[in-house]
Design brief:
2 domains, six-stranded antiparallel beta sheet, binds zinc ion, elongated, mainly beta, 2 helices, 13% helix, 6 strands
Length: 167
């Protein structure tokens, strides 16, 4: 068993369009390489910084991203999926390239799965005004000619169904 700790620059397009790890930013790998019957089991954590946009206010969001990674790599030419069995449609394992393991596909998958679907700059981000797009955080109490709440209450009364007076 070997451990591997190093920092590598992030490959391009690590993530999805609106959110991801910027290309070239440091990605910390803290991995264990374990020899198993089928090949080498790589497991550990990957730490990086993701950046994107808040879905509510469109502010830039950066947050640490910690991803668990686990992937089994077959020794070259020793992949169990290559048995001459025509009914065998199991996915072939990714292959080790000499002593080098290409972690990028596994890293890509793990990062995409770990990204939040709706990134927020903070949990209670007030977002933008739905009328004019103003940032509500900058303008507390921002309102448009909304109906005075007292009149709104009266409006609610008027809208009550009339009482049945037939009795
Ligand atoms: Zn926000
Ligand atoms: Zn507004």
């Amino acid at each position: 068993m070997r451990s591997l700790s190093r920092s590598v620059p992030a490959p391009a397009h690590l993530g999805v369009d609106v959110l991801g790890v910027p290309a070239g930013s440091p990605v910390e790998l803290d991995l264990r390489l374990e020899s198993v019957v089928e090949g080498v089991l790589v497991s550990g954590t990957v730490t990086a910084t993701m950046s994107g946009e808040c879905v509510r206010c469109l502010d830039p969001v950066t947050a640490p991203l910690v991803v668990d990674l686990q992937e089994l790599y077959a020794f070259p030419g020793a992949r169990p999926g290559s048995e001459p069995d025509e009914d065998d449609d199991t996915e072939p394992l990714p292959e080790m390239n000499g002593d080098l393991i290409d972690l990028e596909p596994a890293l890509r998958d793990a990062v995409v799965l770990a990204l939040p679907l709706r990134p927020l700059c903070r949990d209670d981000c007030p977002g933008l005004c739905s009328e004019c797009g103003a940032r509500l955080e900058d303008e507390p109490g921002h309102v448009h000619d909304a109906v005075d709440p007292r009149w709104a209450a009266l409006g609610g009364l008027a809208a009550e169904p009339e009482h049945d007076r037939s009795t």
